[in-house]
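Case study 2.
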Amino acid sequence: MFQSHNKDKPDVLELQVVDPETFDTAYSTNVRVCEYVENQKVDRILPLKAHESVNNSLLKEWETNARKDIIKPNKIFKLFTWLDVSKNGRPIRRFRLVF
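Prediction:
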């Protein structure tokens, strides 16, 4: 689904906050959102960080924006994502939230 390897041309998801509070499952920390797919809103669970992963960038960005009171129910935002290379040369998924 996500194919971009270019920060300047990332994959983009248009989402809407359902509940800004995070919740944990056995595998990850998540939030409830709606995704706009072909002009239809579809309920989704957005994983912010897998428990087994060290990549916590999306979770940190979510928490930072929540502290600034930017993330509220019904707020529409875009999630930009692309595959990059980490400092140690391994593939890593990068994220950016735009409100």
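Strands lie at 11-24, 28-37, 40-50, 76-85, 91-98.
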